[in-house]
Amino acid sequence: FASNGLYYSQRLTPILSTSANGSFEIGSELNQTRTAALYYASLTATPLPTLTDSLVYSGNRQWIGLTSTTSDTLGVYNTAQLYRGISASLNLAASLTSNDDGTGSAQRQRDLFANIGLGITPNPALTLTTYYTAKLSQSTGGPAGGTRATTQNILDLGLSFTPFRALSLAAGANILSETGQPTTVRHNYALSWAPFPDGQLQFNFSYSESHLPEA
After folding, report:
1. Are 193 and 210 in contact (CB under 8 A)?
2. Strands 16-29 and 2-11
3. How far, in Å, CA of 131 to CA of 115, rounded?
4. Are 185 and 173 in contact (CB under 8 A)?
5. What CA–CA distance (Å, rounded) separates 137 from 106?
6. What H or E segment, with its residue span, contains residue 94?
7. Is the pTM for the entire model greater than 0.85?
8. What is the average pLDDT value for the chain, to the nearest integer?
9. How confident is the model at residue 207 (pLDDT cuts 50, 70, 90)?
10. Tens-place pLDDT, residues 127-153
11. Cβ–Cβ under 8 Å, residues 36 and 62
12. Angle value at C-alpha 139, between 137 and 140, nearest 5 degrees
């Protein structure tokens, strides 16, 4: 496996900056030669110290034997510090992917994403997070043929509490709704305790648990 690439970064003005990179990879996979070209470009604006907006384009071209895969994504990512301890994000993206197995059975997929996030830190020991993601997908071709459309909605809720430096507690919930599938809810809990954080002798106790819907 070998990879070669170039990276470029430039601050255009006190508000605007840009970066780009590209790389070429060659190796083997499944006893076949694999080659790939990857590229990325971004334009970032910081009109206020508490506001950052980025326009990002990325993609890749990959070939393994007779199979070729193409992927391109364009996204707008925005983060804002609304108030001390309160931050928000809004991200929009579109992705186009195509896969050709060399037999004329090409499959193409288009994905549209929207993500809204909110983080609240009322004090240094407590953090609350909420993220909602909506995804609309449309695929054509492939073994099944025809056109298929699906929607997906994901809600992530998180809580992190560190009453003192040696003890950390966390809990989270993930709610997933998808076309043609039952809604699933997942819960996660974690406990971490390091009784001697600054000593030469270290102990760390961790506990995590996940609840998945029954089949």
Report:
1. no
2. antiparallel
3. 7
4. yes
5. 17
6. strand 86-100
7. no
8. 87
9. low
10. 999 999 999 999 887 666 678 899 999
11. yes
12. 160
CA pair distance 2, 35, nearest whole angstrom: 10
Which position has the higher pLDDT, 45 or 190? 45
Q: What is the DSSP string of 100-155?
A: E-SSS-EEEEEEEEEEEEEEEEEETTEEEEEEEEEEEEEEEETTT-SEEEEEEEEE
**d(C-alpha 59, C-alpha 42), whole Å:** 12
Helix, strand or coil for residue 6? strand
Exposure b/e, 3-41, CB count within 10 A at least 16 = b: eeeeeeeeeeeeeebebeeeeebeeeeeeeebebebbbe
AA identity, residue 8? Y
Q: Left (φ > 0), alpha (ψ -120 to 50) or beta: where does 71 sit? A: beta
Q: Report in angstroms the alpha-carbon separations of 76 from 16, 33, 82, 213.
A: 15, 35, 19, 34
The string of DSSP codes covering 136-149 is EEEEEETTT-SEEE
- CA dist., res. 125 & res. 167, Å (int): 10
- Dihedral angle computed from the Cα positions of residues 129, 42, 74 and 67, in that order, rounded to the nearest 10 degrees: -110
**How many other C-beta atoms are found inside a 10 Å radius of the C-beta of residue 70?**
15
